[in-house]
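tool_call predict_complex ligand=flavin-adenine dinucleotide
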Amino acid sequence: MNDSKSEIIECLTTMLGANGVLDEPVDCERYRRDWARHELGAPLAVVRPKNTQEVAQVVGFCHEHRVHMVPQGGHTGLVKGALPDSRHPEVVISLERMTRIRNIDPPNFSMAVDSGCILEEVKRVAEEHDCFFPLSLGAQGSCQIGGNIATNAGGVNVLRYGMMRELVLGMEVVLPNGEIWDSMQALHKDNRGYNLQQLFLGSEGTLGIVTGAVLKLSPRPEQSQTALLALPSIEAAVQLYAQARRACSDLLSAFELIPRQCLEIAFEAAPQLSDPLDSAYPYYVLMELGASGPVDLPGMLERLLEAGLEDETVLDGVLASSVTQADQLWLIRESMVEGQLLRGEHLRTDVAVPISAIAECVERASAAVTTYSPESLVIAYGHIGDGNLHINVLPPTQTPAEALPALFEQLESAILTVVDGFDGSISAEHGIGRSKQAAYLGRLSATERRLLAGIKAVFDPDELMGAGRILPLTERSSSSS
Ligand SMILES: Cc1cc2nc3c(=O)[nH]c(=O)nc-3n(C[C@H](O)[C@H](O)[C@H](O)COP(=O)(O)OP(=O)(O)OC[C@H]3O[C@@H](n4cnc5c(N)ncnc54)[C@H](O)[C@@H]3O)c2cc1C
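tool_result ok
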């Protein structure tokens, strides 16, 4: 970067107008922090383009003047990818003003949107047209479609509808040199050579800025059944999951494991909630079935429960009798994440193992944590149907703040070593960003490193976009900043 900060801001302001550029510290404050209240560096400036052309202009300028950039969506990412860097000044490119629904084509089950659209709004518009956009996660009121694409977001409906990777038909991207790559096609089938689009799913803002997307919709489920079931063990949950898929014609859309401690943590964050069952049980499963068309969902669920009660996989349960009651049950699941945040700094992991190995993995990981830190509380919950677990650790309350990073490093390493033993993934959902970079790099083969570095070099040879996320800064890039 050769130009002074004021020269850069002046040029950006000429392009976007005063409203499109923020550089006063007080105005930039909220773009420095993510949902988990992490912060690293201050942005050089925050730009807020209104359309793809403006994004291309800004990126082209930054490329020409060797200014580092980071795209930012709804700040709900959990691996610090969207936070401006502390080592080199970065322009934050926020997509928050790009919120246009471009079109919706119900017979084609597709919808074209600007990437700054909030997920919840996209879901609402799809429903208005009797369609369904299935991506569902706790942050859906804030996260943006561009962020969902960049992190290849998952959520609670993955087992039926897949991750974001399976929900995008077309895409528009501003490449790190300012070129616009327009592939906004609404095709359900296309098999032409390498799939460039898929490279941007999970790229975490390191290969380009997603400015638009054509999303794949499904028919709106006309009926759904939600149940919270109490179970004796994780083994029982895994067994019930297999039974549920078979007994319910594969209409299961969510199957979430919740240990008792998580229920209590959820109540701390949402005191209006109460225990849906009369007694406390070691584990719960929150499950949902959904269908359109004449399907007897209540009958299916009842038969599944009867069989579960009979073979004692299920100890007790409540079936939601209304949408409001179903929402209350889902609020428990959503409040668990907020509740952990309220308890203070904690270790979050996001791993995957084969479904059949879930119980053993949790047992071994808990034992590994207890060996290092007997007073810590391990809570393991997650999306059973995807083998995706959050094995999180709440440290003893008296632990001094300065001791936490070393403790978390030790505990994370212990948990990930257990996951390695099952040939699992150290990041099943949240991505790599900065938080998981060391663990990720340490597990890559030389071949994988070479191929990944090659991909980055094709898209962003000057390492100006999202530099230092997923892959480390190279010496060349560090010295140029
Ligand atoms: C309460 C809570 C629950 C969550 N539950 C889930 C869950 O169930 N499943 C799940 O997968 N995730 C979950 N997350 C994580 C998070 O919501 C997702 O990662 C989400 O997809 C991030 O979107 P965002 O718009 O907030 O992106 P940001 O946090 O703003 O950015 C995330 C990354 O994407 C890049 N980026 C953002 N926008 C663009 C763009 N337009 N083009 C290119 N790159 C871009 C950023 O540079 C950054 O690297 C949860 C988070 C919270 C806080």
